[in-house]
């Protein structure tokens, strides 16, 4: 069964499949092109590459942790199974009617995304549970049997069951499943009361539908993967990264594949959290910028912030509301359409706009010289001196600065009366401001002040922009860890076994029922622990309790963490105090005279976090060897300066470089603004700080 | 400090839009009113010292757009510049100087930087209750519609006016919620203010004159470019809807001229006796919204981008109701203004605007109480439940109308599971209404069915706020009309489209909300889309045969395919 000290992380992304093997703390990684038709092929390819690099055999591997965008892509590309929905009579169109609103108010030709399941595949049955969980209309077994016959005749492969108020009373949904199991034993069934037992029918139904839709595909893929790995001799356990930042068994993943959505980015957040732990940082902003999007996440006390609902498959310029809501525990990330390939244009107000349209890899930014004639963020970076045209992606792509300049002048400069450099400055400032705004809004929504934060940057384009972002956000320290190009896959290796169970049950503090709370939390704890125990038979399991509270009448709950003691001996006064403290931290005041209610209860069961040895910060050992000089535009000073060029590999522990500078490596380039300096830390992390600041 | 560069101004404009969005999000998170938190019935903006709006949050609904743009000017005039101090907060719910009815509270906060007035933040929210008769059309004058708060100081140099707070508390049904909402409005302005000052410090600004001028100049030029690219001309449009006491005709003459578009509502019906009248600010908001959608959709709302859209209407017409006309449900008339505008605009700009849609939101309020015709049931209680719902939108020149989607309003519906938690109401049905979309080359959006009852032991008053019972949405360019609104009790008892009506214990209200109208002749509809509509059940077999000319054989082929699971796209 392999050696427990040898573990492999695999992240299937849209373009590349990243594979990392860790042998006694040492990492070997590779990037292989994703093979869409049979994604396991790329994994096997990568497996052999990293095994060769590490000098181990596949059979030596003790554990494989896997994360993938396959679930997300299946939802975006509508490549799921032939799926039907069974729902309460009178509510056939919940997933189609959405919120009955337009996510873009000024577009007369707006079209809404089609639901995953069209109307003729949505069946309703007479039954009804009310808002207290009581049964208003009994379920009629014969009616369900008749629907089962119809489903059979039409050949559906997967069935979602979503009934009104089933999060309070799952009995009818379970009866439907029993009938389907008898009549259609080969068809997969997903219940909304199991996949997402939360109030709000649109989100819950959509989540169970998404789960059912991708279940056959994911189940078959995971089965094939296991088989192929065994064929290659890797017969160790395989675990899956989930969107909440932990790992679950391959069987749980096949049952609840919707929880795999966003597993790649979750791995990135865990990677950043692990770096935060090494540096003993309690307030971290992770910043991941790739070719098409940038992702921002708050990490407090080395734990990424989580949320209960997010939106996948946005169809309209990344606009909120244009995708489909999925209510599952998820790491709370802001994603905006800003990456190296994002294209710029001028709008009718003569303002520079950047993204979300992206140049992709073909034709790519203008500087690739493959026919792209619109300026991308990479073009601006090149013209501003941030990139070396002769040494991009390790020299594998020759960049053409003149093509960038032409595109910048033609698309932006002519209208705005700017030369290529000023247009590049404008483009870069706009994209950096967009990202900074997203970070600011996210921080404000969470009641956080970013000036107390440290940024951790990874992803190909992040180190080019992170320094400027720190200036804009008033962040004094930035870490760029090693392995940033395969950060998600490394993150998988650092993730605990975990599972979060949650449920909507309304309770006012004026009607506080400690016994109900105790049994509810115990039930959730048992459910969550069960998932974790199936992965690890012996480890300690920690339970983290959270309740979502609000003033009665409000629509927005805030998450309140409870200690184990507060959860086992619930007390209304304590709950109120905890709520008021967090509410005033967020909104500056509390509201007198209002009752407070709890809407959602959640228990996250997790194995204890890996013990991370804190790094002893390097002391200054003098200036690093300078490999050269180049002209670099500094946006804060709005002028060109003469920057030192340093090779990252040349930087010894403790060596420093004063900005303006560029620190280069094959995968990326770290831009050090004039206001900053960098130090190489013992683990290879580049530590950037404001000159003269105490951090 | 030298003049900031064009690049710096670009960054600042972006930042200001982000600032007002943060301001709006803070309101969504802290407000108590369902209409704000679930439905987004709010707006937030930043203004220069002259009261000109510089930026407005994207989050919000069109009805507040122009109304908010004008409001701050009224505040400056009423408060008096000499009385504006750091730490002040102002308030009103004046329908004519705010946003059209007493249920909208507008709060304005002056923003001081280095001891000098730099600008203002303003925000508006639709609140739960303002006393009076409650939210509905039944009042005969604005005096009956609730408490009136003239433009005044809520906070004077940091000190809250407790007298005002006591008067407010004493006059409304949900005092804690309303006071909570008022503070939420003040807090959201405060958040906007703090972020603006951070920006001014970062860029070394002493005032907003430079960036304000940059925003307004670029917006004005862009708007005029859009307008001046249109053919000049005049056209008139009119439409008739149910109204309350009598049908209402909205008449508008649109003139596209150099540098402006004028909408003149001369000939529009006079005010109604009941509370569906619309102050001019609100009619202006929707007229302007309709025109901006069609002509200049990407230009953000601010004083300069709104100015070229001029609107006039005769005093005492239903789109220019003056004090003391009742105006609580001004949205009903306001939501029809775009369809009236489009009737005219279609003649000047062919192939641009949609056919008529459901228009006004299909809202209703349910006032539940323990049954009075028999002994009390244990646990029976009183509750007020307001819901927002939508009919179908009109078909477009190249697309079908959106099913059960609000237009022109920007608000969202509430989940029925959430609605049922707010009171002992039961929503038995909420789903699409087949055959309600007007036929055409492009089909109108479907309306929806709803069925509303109460938990055992309750009876209720049903406050209806519907239109299009007698006047369904009219097709455009040869498209057919949408289906009208119907409202009835489950035992067949008649109900009316508007007003408060009693529903006895055990009875349900059965509603069918209107569909949008079709666009273009039905003969030109793509046969594949007709088959798809039949497969999905958007149209019945009868409609497929009668309106779209499908043969029996074709219909059966579709039905068989669906049964076999072959046509499930």
Report the end-to-end length of chain B measured between terminal Cα atoms.
62 Å
Question: What Rg of chain A is obtained from the alpha carbons, in whole angstroms?
Answer: 26 Å
| SS summary, helix count of chain A | 17
How far apart the termini of chain A lie comes to: 46 Å
Task: Provide the fold topology.
The complex is a heterodimer of chains A (695) and B (569).
Chain A: E1 3-12, E2 16-23, E3 26-33, H1 39-54, E4 61-68, H2 70-76, E5 83-88, H3 94-97, E6 122-125, E7 128-129, E8 135-137, H4 141-154, E9 158-162, H5 171-183, E10 188-191, H6 192-195, H7 201-231, E11 237-241, E12 247-249, H8 250-255, H9 263-278, E13 283-289, E14 294-300, E15 303-304, E16 306-307, E17 310-312, E18 324-326, E19 330-331, E20 333-336, E21 342-346, E22 352-358, H10 377-383, H11 401-416, H12 420-445, E23 454-458, H13 462-473, E24 477-480, H14 487-494, E25 498-508, H15 514-533, E26 542-551, E27 558-562, H16 564-568, H17 572-587, E28 596-606, E29 628-634, E30 639-647, E31 656-658, E32 661-664, E33 669-672, E34 676-680, E35 686-690
Parallel strand pairs in A: 1-4, 4-11, 5-6, 5-9, 9-10, 13-23, 23-24, 30-32
Antiparallel strand pairs in A: 1-2, 2-3, 7-8, 11-12, 13-14, 14-15, 14-20, 16-19, 17-18, 21-22, 24-35, 25-28, 26-27, 26-28, 29-30, 31-34, 32-33, 34-35
Chain B: H1 6-30, H2 34-37, E1 42-47, E2 53-56, H3 65-79, E3 89-92, E4 104-113, E5 116-126, E6 152-156, E7 159-160, H4 162-171, H5 175-202, H6 209-228, E8 233-241, E9 248-257, E10 260-264, H7 280-295, H8 303-306, E11 309-312, H9 330-334, H10 337-348, E12 363-370, E13 383-387, H11 416-422, E14 425-433, E15 447-454, E16 458-465, E17 486-489, E18 498-503, E19 509-512, H12 527-536, H13 541-546, H14 552-563
Parallel strand pairs in B: 10-11
Antiparallel strand pairs in B: 1-2, 1-5, 3-4, 3-6, 4-5, 6-7, 8-9, 9-10, 12-13, 12-16, 14-15, 15-19, 16-18, 17-19
């Amino acid at each position: 069964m392999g050696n427990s000290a040898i573990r492999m992380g695999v992240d299937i992304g849209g373009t590349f499949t990243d594979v990392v093997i860790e042998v006694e703390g040492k990492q070997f990684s590779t990037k292989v092109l994703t093979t869409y038709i049979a994604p396991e092929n790329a994994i096997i390819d990568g497996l052999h590459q990293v095994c060769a690099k590490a000098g181990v055999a596949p059979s030596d591997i003790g554990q494989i942790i896997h994360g993938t965008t396959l679930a997300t892509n299946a939802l975006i590309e509508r490549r799921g199974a032939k799926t039907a929905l069974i729902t309460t009579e009178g509510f056939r169109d919940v997933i189609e009617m959405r919120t009955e609103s337009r996510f873009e108010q000024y577009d007369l030709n707006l079209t809404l995304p089609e639901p995953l399941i069209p109307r003729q595949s949505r069946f309703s049955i007479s039954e009804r549970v009310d808002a207290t969980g009581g049964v208003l209309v009994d379920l009629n077994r014969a009616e369900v049997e008749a629907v089962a016959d119809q489903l059979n005749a039409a050949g559906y492969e997967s069935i979602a069951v979503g009934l009104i108020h089933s999060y309070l009373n799952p009995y009818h949904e379970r009866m439907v499943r029993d009938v389907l199991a008898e009549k259609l034993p080969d068809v997969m069934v997903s219940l909304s009361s199991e996949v997402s037992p939360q109030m709000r029918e649109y989100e819950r139904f959509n989540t169970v539908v998404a789960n059912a839709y991708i279940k056959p595909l994911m189940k078959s893929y995971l089965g094939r993967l296991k088989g192929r790995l065994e064929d290659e001799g890797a017969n160790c356990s395989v675990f899956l990264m989930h969107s909440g930042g932990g790992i679950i068994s391959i069987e749980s993943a096949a049952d609840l594949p919707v929880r795999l959505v966003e597993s790649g980015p979750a791995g990135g957040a865990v990677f950043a959290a692990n770096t935060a732990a090494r540096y003993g940082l309690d307030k971290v902003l992770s910043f991941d910028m790739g070719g098409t999007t940038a992702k921002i996440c708050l990490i407090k006390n080395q734990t990424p912030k989580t949320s209960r609902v997010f939106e996948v498959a946005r169809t309209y310029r990344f606009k909120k509301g244009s995708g489909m809501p999925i209510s599952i525990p998820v790491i709370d990330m802001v994603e905006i359409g800003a990456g190296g390939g994002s294209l710029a244009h001028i709008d009718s107000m003569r303002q520079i706009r950047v993204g979300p349209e992206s140049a992709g890899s073909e034709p790519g930014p203008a500087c690739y010289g493959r026919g792209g004639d619109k300026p991308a963020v990479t073009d601006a970076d090149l013209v501003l001196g941030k990139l070396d045209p002769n040494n991009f992606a390790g020299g594998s792509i020759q960049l053409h600065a003149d093509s960038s300049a032409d595109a910048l002048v033609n698309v932006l400069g002519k209208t705005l009366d700017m030369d290529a450099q000023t247009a590049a400055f404008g483009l870069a400032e706009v994209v950096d401001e967009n990202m900074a705004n997203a970070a600011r809004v996210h921080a404000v929504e969470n009641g956080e002040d970013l000036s107390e934060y440290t940024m951790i940057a990874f992803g190909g384009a992040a180190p080019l922009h992170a320094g400027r972002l720190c200036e804009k956000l008033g962040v004094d320290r930035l870490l760029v860890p090693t392995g940033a190009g395969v950060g998600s896959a490394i993150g998988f290796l650092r993730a605990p076994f975990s599972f979060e169970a949650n449920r909507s049950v309304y309770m006012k503090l004026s009607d506080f029922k400690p016994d109900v709370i105790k049994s509810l939390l115990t039930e959730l704890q048992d459910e969550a622990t069960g998932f974790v125990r199936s992965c690890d038979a012996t480890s300690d399991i920690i339970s983290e309790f959270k309740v979502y509270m609000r003033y009665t009448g409000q629509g927005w709950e805030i998450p309140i963490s409870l200690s184990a003691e507060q959860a086992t001996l619930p007390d209304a006064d304590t709950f109120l105090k905890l709520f008021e403290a967090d509410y005033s931290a967020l909104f500056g005041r509390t509201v007198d005279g209002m009752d407070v209610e709890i809407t959602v209860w959640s228990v996250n069961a997790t194995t204890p976090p890996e013990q991370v040895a804190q790094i002893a910060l390097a002391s200054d050992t003098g200036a690093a060897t300078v490999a050269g000089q180049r002209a670099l535009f500094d946006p804060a000073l709005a002028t060109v300066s003469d920057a030192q060029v340093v090779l990252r590999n040349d930087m010894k522990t403790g060596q420093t470089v004063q900005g303006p500078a560029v620190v280069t490596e094959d995968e990326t380039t770290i831009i050090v603004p004039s206001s900053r300096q960098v130090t190489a830390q013992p683990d290879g992390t580049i530590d950037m700080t404001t000159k003269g600041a105490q951090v | 400090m030298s003049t900031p560069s064009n690049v710096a101004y670009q960054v600042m404009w972006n930042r200001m839009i982000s600032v007002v969005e943060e301001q709006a999000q803070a309101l969504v998170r802290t407000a108590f009113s369902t209409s704000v938190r679930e439905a987004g019935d709010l707006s937030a903006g930043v203004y220069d010292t002259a009261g000109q709006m510089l930026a407005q949050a994207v989050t919000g609904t069109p009805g507040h757009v122009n109304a908010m743009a004008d409001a701050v000017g009224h505040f400056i005039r009423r408060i008096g510049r000499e009385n504006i101090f750091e730490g002040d907060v102002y308030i009103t719910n004046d329908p004519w100087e705010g946003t059209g009815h007493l249920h909208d509270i507008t709060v304005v906060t002056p923003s001081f930087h280095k001891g000098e007035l730099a600008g203002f933040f303003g925000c508006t929210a639709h609140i739960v209750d303002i006393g009076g008769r409650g939210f509905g059309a039944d009042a005969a004058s604005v005096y009956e519609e609730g408490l009136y708060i003239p433009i005044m100081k809520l906070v004077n140099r940091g000190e809250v006016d407790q007298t005002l707070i006591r008067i407010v508390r004493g006059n409304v049904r949900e005092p804690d919620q309303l006071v909570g909402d008022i503070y939420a409005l003040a807090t959201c302005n405060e958040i906007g203010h703090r972020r603006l000052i951070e920006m001014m410090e970062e860029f070394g600004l002493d005032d907003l004159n430079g960036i304000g001028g940059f925003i307004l100049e670029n917006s004005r030029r862009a708007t005029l470019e859009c307008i001046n690219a249109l053919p000049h001309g005049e056209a008139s449009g009119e439409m008739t809807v149910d109204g309350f006491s009598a049908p209402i005709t909205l008449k508008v003459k649109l003139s596209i001229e150099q540098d402006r578009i004028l909408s003149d509502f001369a000939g529009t019906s006079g005010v109604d006796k009941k509370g569906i009248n619309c102050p001019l600010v609100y009619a202006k908001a929707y007229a302007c919204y309709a025109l901006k959608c069609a002509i200049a959709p990407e230009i953000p709302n601010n004083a300069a981008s709104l100015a070229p859209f001029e609107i006039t209407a005769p005093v005492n017409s239903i789109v220019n109701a003056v004090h003391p006309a009742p105006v609580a449900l001004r949205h009903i008339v306001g939501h029809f203004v775009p369809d009236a505008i489009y009737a005219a605009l279609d003649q000047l700009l062919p192939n641009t605007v949609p056919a008529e849609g459901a228009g006004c939101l299909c809202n209703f309020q349910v006032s539940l109480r323990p049954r009075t015709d028999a002994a009390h049931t244990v646990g029976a209680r009183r509750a007020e439940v307001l819901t927002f719902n939508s009919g179908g939108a009109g078909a477009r020149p190249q697309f079908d109308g959106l099913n059960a989607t609000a237009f022109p309003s920007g608000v969202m519906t509430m989940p029925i599971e959430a609605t049922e938690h707010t009171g002992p109401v039961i929503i038995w049905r909420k789903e699409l209404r087949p055959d309600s979309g007007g036929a055409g080359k492009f089909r109108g959006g479907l309306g929806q069915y709803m069925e509303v009852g109460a938990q055992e032991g309750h009876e209720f008053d049903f406050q209806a706020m519907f239109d299009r019972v007698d006047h369904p949405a009219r097709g455009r360019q040869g498209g057919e009309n949408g289906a009208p609104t119907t409202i009835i009790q489950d035992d067949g008892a008649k109900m009316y489209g508007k007003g408060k009506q009693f529903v006895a214990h055990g009875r349900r209200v059965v509603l069918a909300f209107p569909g949008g109208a079709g666009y273009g002749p039905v003969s030109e509809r793509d046969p594949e889309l007709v088959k798809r509509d039949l497969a999905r059940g958007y149209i019945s077999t009868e409609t497929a045969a009668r309106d779209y000319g499908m043969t029996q054989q074709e219909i059966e082929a579709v039905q068989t395919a669906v049964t076999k699971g072959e046509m499930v796209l």
